[in-house]
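Batch manifest, entry 17 of 40.
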Amino acid sequence: MEDNKRSNRLIFEKSPYLLQHAYNPVDWYPWGEAAFEKAKKEDKPIFLSIGYSTCHWCHVMEKESFEDPKVAKLMNETFVSIKVDKEERPDLDNIYMTVCQMMTGSGGWPLTIIITPDKKPFFAATYIPKETRYGRIGMKELIPRVREVWKSRREEVLSSSEKIADLLKQSSITSLGEELSENILDSAYAQLSGRFDERYGGFGDAPKFPTPHNLTFLLRYWKRTGNKQPPTPFGKGDEKVLHMVEETLQAMRLGGIYDHIGFGFHRYSTDAKWFVPHFEKMLYDQAMLTIAYVEGYQATGHQDYKQTAQEILTYILRDMTAPDGGFYSAEDADSEGEEGKFYVWSEEEIRRILPKGEAELAIKAFNVEEEGNFKEEATGEITGKNILYLRTPLIELASELKILPEELRERLESARQKLFDDREKRIRPHRDEKVLTDWNGLMIAAMAKAAQAFDQAEYINASKKAADFILAKMMDSRGRLYHRYREGEVAIQGFLDDYAFLIWGLIEIYETDFEVKYLKVALELTEEMIKHFWDEKGGAFYFTADDAESVILRRKEIYDGATPSGNSVAMLNLLRLGRIMANPEFEEKARQIGRAFSKDISQSPSVYTQMMAALDFEIGNPYEIVLVGNSKSDDMKAMLKALRERFIPNKVIILRPTEVESPEIIRLANYTKDMLSIDGKTTAYVCQNYSCKQPTTDIGKMLELFR
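Output type: structure tokens
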């Protein structure tokens, strides 16, 4: 298709997003010195366009403007144009997205920034149409204006860019403030409670994002506030904190945001009901949502949460896992140039694929309508297509249909499998097959946590295979991480999130099968992270390393948005490793992270919910549990099962195997050397506040120590 088109410099890149633009008539450059030297030499501003390969509006802007020869000619005459994949260069995206939010009050992708040759911004926008419409300036009008301003009002432009750069620097300065206290947790809960959508679950109005760390924080808050009641009926919680979690987990699972045929969650819901999704699927959403459903299951025992987590991981292992073990990044919302086409159904299709009885059941269960069940966003017209969703849990639907819940599950699963097999014949959305260390770290953690809760070896095996891949292919001889791998090439020096998220995954692997090598690597990476990212003066971690490429600003990130921040995850990692290793220096570093951001956090703690989970661990008298015994014995397995089937978030578990004469864990956690098994049985040492209770071989007595 593109054989007769000329490629630009992006043809030599590995990023799927950059390669999507390799045949644009725009003379694109990748981020690098060649582009900046050209801009200085030709005295041109730089048109910086940041997006990602599965971004719907990025595709729209490409088709409208970047593929248009007239727009491309204007761009080539006026700018040096640079394309950046935000997933490859989150450091640049963080900086220039902050600029966009400062200048316009909002942000999003594609992100459009016009900068000087020394990288300082003077114009910011998101999607820009080709023609001016609805009060939004178009590319054809914008470009000549910028050219005129650059030529005739250069001093104003440079002065403005300096002021913006200075404001950016001021906004990123941190200093050690007050220690975070327990009342911050109460404030975070109160703010979430105030935003909770009592009717549809979730927080706020449309568009509605999953934000799973809101839910995992609330589960910890529920545990902290002394709730002693048994779990409330599924989705009907009377106790407010658990009620918010359950309503949201349930509503997301029932809604159109969930892929009921192939599993996994779409990015977000465009409406408040979780019905009409933005159809792209991101690895980080699957990871964080898996963790939320795993912990929801541990807290309540509800099988639907377990099933949802297992289905997400089925999707990941089937569609998003590379042969060598790494996890792919994302799947697009669009296929055949149309958003959601792969995922929606007509009633006629369902009747064609399924036998009559199954078709009638599926049509009723998934709320399929002959004319379609949603409207085209742009035109408001009925589409003739259906987004599959459930109105009520299956147990309620079974009662309505007067059949047993298990029979309904079996019949719906039979229909689902047939629909899935037929859907596999469709043209699939684009899959972004780059492997990112940070997002893989999240999925490694999720897989390992699911392996613990569900006792499924498949998950820990996948988790370890992915970790082994990263450690073999994406870490250099100095123990430093790379950020991206694709088609045999590793590139881009690792960022804070790469270290923090992978360390999280490695800790979870250790607490799943207690293979000490993963704990050792977690400790080594922690030391590297402190060495190259820590701010001795202001506390907390910078996003980029001390020897990274020089950009206009070295920032610290704390906002827990689509993914949690590296600082929030690092704080909890340091606390957990500090307890495992009896290392108070790690715990002090963790406290300093909280102090570095205490002013911002105190004002709006509910947007830092992963940090709140770390704080909950810090001030919650966490337990250190040392299990001493044969690691393969039945009584060891029984004791671990008892710990894992309950929701006990503020704990670390260390296993000291007795079948090995000199276990390696003793060299890392020396305090375990004198802990012995009683009568050859698995023995639990439950420690808290730097003292250990009487060791016990009785599971019931061990659990009693947690009360």
